[in-house]
Design goal:
- The chain is α+β, with helices and mostly antiparallel strands and 115 residues long.
- It has one domain.
- 16% of the residues lie in helices and 23% in strands.
- It has two helices and five strands; from the N terminus they run βαββββα.
- It is globular.
- The protein starts with 9 loop residues before the first strand and ends in an 18-residue tail after the last helix.
């Protein structure tokens, strides 16, 4: 996982994105559709049509970084909305990248209260 500065926001671009796009195409989506600045230092996450591939666009201060991940099995959990953005926490981004349902993570053990 990349080390993100503490003030970094993480945005999911709702809906499907043509992931044949690279730096320029995804930056254009951030500017026109999401109405954000791709050089703001925030993280923008895009998912392809099949759901097994995502791309992450991030300005690290020196230039744009473009990361891609494809799951061998399963799909990335994505919001049902067709447009707009969804904000994630760092923990939710980590779960997303691992293929875990970040919307409703389940505890394996329920903590008990000691009296």
């Amino acid at each position: 996982m990349i080390a993100l500065p503490s003030a970094t926001h993480i945005w999911i671009a709702a809906g499907m994105t043509d992931l044949r796009r690279g730096f320029t195409g995804l930056s254009a989506i951030v500017q026109t559709v999401l109405e954000r600045n791709p050089c703001s230092g925030h993280v923008f996450v895009f998912r392809g049509r099949r759901g097994d591939l995502i791309k992450v666009l991030w300005w690290d201060g020196d230039g744009l970084c473009l990361f891609a991940k494809r799951l061998e099995r399963g799909r990335f959990v994505w919001p049902q909305a067709e447009s707009g953005t969804v904000s994630l926490t760092r923990a939710q981004l980590s779960m997303l990248l691992e293929g875990i349902d970040w919307r409703r993570p389940m505890r394996t053990h329920t903590p008990e209260v000691w009296v």
